[in-house]
Structure prediction request, 332 residues.
Amino acid sequence: MKRFVDLAAVPREEVLALLALAQRLQHHPEPRALAGKILGLVFFNPSLRTLASCQAAMLRLGGGSFVINPGQGSWQLETRTGTVMNGAAAEHVREALPVLASYCDALGIRAFAEGKDLAHDLAETTFGAMAALIDKPLINLESAANHPCQALADWKTLDDLAVPRSGRFVLSWAWHPRALPLAVPAAVLHMAALRGMEVIVLRPEGFALPPPLMQSARQAAAGAGGSVRETSERAAALEGADILYVKEWGATACYGDSAADARLRAALTDWCVREEWFATAAPQCRVMHCLPVRRNTAIADAVLDGPRSAVQLEAHNRLPTQMAVLHQLLKS
Prediction:
């Protein structure tokens, strides 16, 4: 494996091997495995778990890392091609990224969606242009429409919880005061489909996931013995669910139009996950969320602090799975 930029680009057997490696490294660390290796990290957007897990993983494996936050202690970087650089950015990624890659053995990049043009973001135009500049092992730390590191940790969490491969996985939209990117729902949707689960996307009208994402997930599910469908009927979706994966995302019916998005979500504040959602339909259902999560906005306190919450296990799994990815990329 030379790059980890999209779980869909990794053969299923290699994903399973990564998960087995993560399990092994979690219980039997290799503190000298990556001695002398350096991981470069470029974060165009904020991070907590992704940044910390990458740095901790390198240290646990005997390596080191450096972090660049463009515009915060370093030059602000321009990512657009063909632009006239007469604004705030002092340097272009076309110069900066190859230099940074030359200082390390692998590079990780986080660059969120612009949130203006759905086709542009789904095509991973910005991340793809940056990836083309890198000749070292590369890790996608969240792009416009993907977050493979989160998806891998989520798969391990499902395994740790002993959720059946054929279990019912409900990916549910939740309320947020503003539109959020599609990266996590897209990655998690594909992960659950590739795992072979019965996947249901639960969302209100106007927030359907884009057809290309659904089609890709359906193809993955077909090869793994699972299925993918979507609905706005909450009770039917949750009936017998093993996992409710909660995530906020922007309205796809009016992508890039913040005013129209705000109008759509204004009446949807009841899409905050509460204990009443489960009642008798899914009494054993566990709840996952990638974090950060807004309490009593996306998920109620009683759920997050109760026995069905798996968000802490999910977050903890970012470390062993990150170790596995780095080990696979850099262990000579």
Observations:
- DSSP finds 13 helices and twelve strands in the chain.
- The CA atoms of residues 151 and 188 lie 5 Å apart.
- The mean pLDDT is 97.
